[in-house]
């Protein structure tokens, strides 16, 4: 097995675009990868959809050399472009973080503004909103009368609360 230092990571950006909407020179889902991550992210967001993906493969030095040689047979090619064998395609994995970043790049300005607002909230506030607070042992078994007593002790308005619970028993 090759060590991490012996591997070369290559990337591929793809989008699910219906055939009728593709330009004439749109490369089909093939074997093209690149060492340039920015190119892969561009391919994952070029049609301005939210379906783009950034995949990667870790190739051994021999596999990388073979893939590089295959790409040299093309008349035009991008820098860092390699063409991998069909059997290697099954080993590609989705880079989740880079896929999210590619999709975020296609959000509308209004959606981006909303994400920026959410991102600016303090983490504690966001956590408080997203998590419920468990009841302590005293609160877990409280009955309607206990809530009424608590309200009286704290001078809270209780008129109308009783009508909400009228007809409810422990069996309901």
Please identify the oligomeric state: single chain
> What can be said about the biggest beta sheet?
3 strands, antiparallel
The outline comes out as: elongated
Give unreliable regions as ranges.
none
The helicity comes to: 40-55%
- What count of domains describes the coordinates? 2
Q: Calculate Rg over CA atoms.
A: 29 Å
The portion of residues forming beta strands comes to 5-15%
The neighbouring-strand order within the major sheet is 1-3-5
Mean pLDDT: 75
Strand segment count: 5
Distance between the termini: 63 Å
Produce a short descriptive summary:
42% of the residues lie in helices and 14% in strands.
Topology, element by element:
Blueprint: E1 7-14, E2 32-34, H1 37-45, E3 53-60, H2 61-71, E4 81-83, H3 86-89, E5 93-94, H4 96-104, H5 109-120, H6 123-130, H7 137-140, H8 144-153, H9 161-165
Antiparallel strand pairs: 1-3, 2-4, 3-5
Helix pairs in contact: 1-4
